[in-house]
Amino acid sequence: MIFCLCAALCEGIDLQAAGVAAAGIGAEFRPSPDQFGTFFSASTFGLFFGALIGGRLADSIGRKKVLVVSVGLFGLFSLLTAMASDVQSLTWARLLTGLGLGGALPMLLALVSESSGVEQQNARVATVYAAAPFGGAIVSLISLSVSASHWRLIFIAGGVLPLLLAPLMAFGMSESPAFRREAHTEGSPKAGSFAAIFTQGRALRTVLLWLSFFLELLLLYLLLNWLPTLLVTDGLTRLQAAAAQIGFNIGGGLAALLIGYLLGGRLRNAGIVITFAALPVLLVALAKAPADSGIISVTVFFLGCSVLAAQAFLYAMAPGSYPSSIRGVGVGAAIAVGRIGSIVGPKLGGLLKSAGHGPSQLFLDLLPVVILGSICALLLAWNTRKQ
Q: Which end of the chain is more exposed for a tag (fewer CB within 10 A), N or C?
């Protein structure tokens, strides 16, 4: 549990490094909005393939091996990002970093789920996921302590920490007990079988997971990558925008912990409904907020609560949807589909900004996506409760 928390913290630092370093990168390389969108999407493109490959391998060779290699990879390529000399090399480095990030997250979820009792699974998975937004808050604090021109230090921090962690995990962490015990027992689906995630009544839940992940991650990654830039455009200073981003992550981390607790108790349904009903309301509130740093920061804080609580819910639901022998491929496929949304989100933000949409209009443009994603997630919750 401790190793997975540390790995999730490192993942959160690396996932949000591009967004908080954007000001310095923009000043040095002068990329167009479209190039910025491609840069933001590059790591999530790598995340897509990393989740698919890592999930498939984990059902065959084990969760621990894939996780350790993935953590080492995203640490190494984060360091290479700091050495980039132009936008093209920067984008390629982020793509390769994404491969490691994508392989790590499904393994974190599977390991924690399979190392927990049934009553503890949702809370523990949500707790580990909550470490990622706290990692995002840490990288935002780093950005506040250095000038924008020193943006490379952000990627150096994002590389050194996982490279220190990977060997400790290799020697100190045990393999998933469920993988050792159950993955290849008689009657289980064939290990790593992609087709099996659609059989024996799992098809509807798989489709709902995929749609929910795609739409919610589209929103999350657009906000993670574009929110600081949009807030500066809206009149905030760079420091105020970074502080709002920290609030987004801290609020999200706290809300992720809360939703994990609620999923195991009598307030499960109320917590889920409030989370997904609040998403469109808060997005409209941010679009209509006056150019006041206090009001915007409070709105961003609660938006972070809602967005990342929604993510924690999805990550908590994913491992329990599949038996151990196909848990890696099932969770990996759901996250990979979500990563397509992660690719589309930042690119969509760049296209809308290039088309002249200001921050308020851009937030309102996202409203149909948010409403549809909330409906899919509520249907998933209903289906899960029913089964």
A: C
CATH label of the domain that carries residue 379: 1.20.1250.20
- Residue 221 domain-assigned (yes or no): yes
C-alpha span between 356 and 106 (Å, rounded): 37
Percent of the chain with pLDDT over 70: 95
What domain range is 48 assigned to?
Answer: 2-179+190-386
Q: In this structure, is the dihedral angle defined by the CA atoms of residues 101, 107, 111 and 113, taken in order, positive or negative? A: positive
Q: What is the token pair recorded at 274?
A: 């409030």
Structurally, the chain folds into a number of domains equal to 1
SS3 call for 190: coil
DSSP state of 326: G
Q: What is the pLDDT of residues 45-77, one digit of tens each?
A: 888 888 888 888 888 888 888 999 999 999 999
Give pLDDT, residue 96: 92
Residue 184 belongs to some domain of the structure: no
106 within 8 A of 330, measured Cβ to Cβ = no
For the chain, counts of helices (H) and of strands (E): 15, 0
